[in-house]
Amino acid sequence: MSKKLSKRIKEALAKIDQKKAYQPIEALELLKETATAKFNESAEAHIRLGIDPKYTDQQLRTTVSLPNGTGQSIRVAVIAKGEKVQEASNAGADIVGSEELIEEIQKGMMDFEVLIATPDMMPKVAKLGRALGPRGLMPSPKGGTVTSDLGKAISEFKSGKLEFRADRTGIVHVIFGKASFSPKDLLVNLKALQDTVDKQRPSGAKGRYWRSVYVSASMGPSIQIDINALRDLKLEDI
């Protein structure tokens, strides 16, 4: 039985040509226009890449610093010991702890968006793999979340740095701002994301790397973006 579409979704869909790949700024203007929920929706990007992440040389996991931030309040947790605990607190971490924090997470406490760990705590953090892995929260050096420079890491994640990875089907899902952002601010963030995906192209990626890019408000319909137009765009021209 097909799901009946709400009047709100029908009206949003009517504004989009499903067969068209839009110019980036045009797509983001449409994203704002179709964000008609009663809350400030997130702006989402869904990028399908020509990779097969079951091969280690075709995996993509990295970070991007969004110039205009995410528009979200990011809660950062830190697992450290000794003087690093105080350092993390002073740097603005929301949750800080050592073995006791590892135990809390094991019991199901997940009240954070980013988890940072110092290198010396990683042998103990390893036991959290089953709980954190599926949520994409496991600290990793590649993701910038295993570090001794806690002040810098906390500051960066609080101000718009985020980690992302390609899922098992080779699709990257990233929230790159809020529907309340201006189209220009959204475009600057989206361009930073595209640049990062290009720079971090896995060594094993063969043939056509970019397959499709869609954006949407979190409760709105998908809007296809012309990939070449986005990649050809220069940041200084936005």
TrEMBL record:
<keyword id="KW-0678">Repressor</keyword>
<dbReference type="InterPro" id="IPR028364">
    <property type="entry name" value="Ribosomal_uL1/biogenesis"/>
</dbReference>
<keyword id="KW-0694">RNA-binding</keyword>
<dbReference type="InterPro" id="IPR005878">
    <property type="entry name" value="Ribosom_uL1_bac-type"/>
</dbReference>
<dbReference type="InterPro" id="IPR016095">
    <property type="entry name" value="Ribosomal_uL1_3-a/b-sand"/>
</dbReference>
<keyword id="KW-0687">Ribonucleoprotein</keyword>
<keyword id="KW-0689">Ribosomal protein</keyword>
<comment type="subunit">
    <text>Part of the 50S ribosomal subunit.</text>
</comment>
<protein>
    <recommendedName>
        <fullName>Large ribosomal subunit protein uL1</fullName>
    </recommendedName>
</protein>
<comment type="similarity">
    <text>Belongs to the universal ribosomal protein uL1 family.</text>
</comment>
<comment type="function">
    <text>Protein L1 is also a translational repressor protein, it controls the translation of the L11 operon by binding to its mRNA.</text>
</comment>
<keyword id="KW-0820">tRNA-binding</keyword>
<dbReference type="GO" id="GO:0015934">
    <property type="term" value="C:large ribosomal subunit"/>
</dbReference>
<dbReference type="InterPro" id="IPR023673">
    <property type="entry name" value="Ribosomal_uL1_CS"/>
</dbReference>
<dbReference type="InterPro" id="IPR023674">
    <property type="entry name" value="Ribosomal_uL1-like"/>
</dbReference>
<comment type="function">
    <text>Binds directly to 23S rRNA. The L1 stalk is quite mobile in the ribosome, and is involved in E site tRNA release.</text>
</comment>
<dbReference type="GO" id="GO:0006412">
    <property type="term" value="P:translation"/>
</dbReference>
<dbReference type="GO" id="GO:0006417">
    <property type="term" value="P:regulation of translation"/>
</dbReference>
<dbReference type="GO" id="GO:0003735">
    <property type="term" value="F:structural constituent of ribosome"/>
</dbReference>
<dbReference type="GO" id="GO:0000049">
    <property type="term" value="F:tRNA binding"/>
</dbReference>
<dbReference type="GO" id="GO:0019843">
    <property type="term" value="F:rRNA binding"/>
</dbReference>
<keyword id="KW-0810">Translation regulation</keyword>
<dbReference type="InterPro" id="IPR002143">
    <property type="entry name" value="Ribosomal_uL1"/>
</dbReference>
<keyword id="KW-0699">rRNA-binding</keyword>
<dbReference type="Pfam" id="PF00687">
    <property type="entry name" value="Ribosomal_L1"/>
</dbReference>
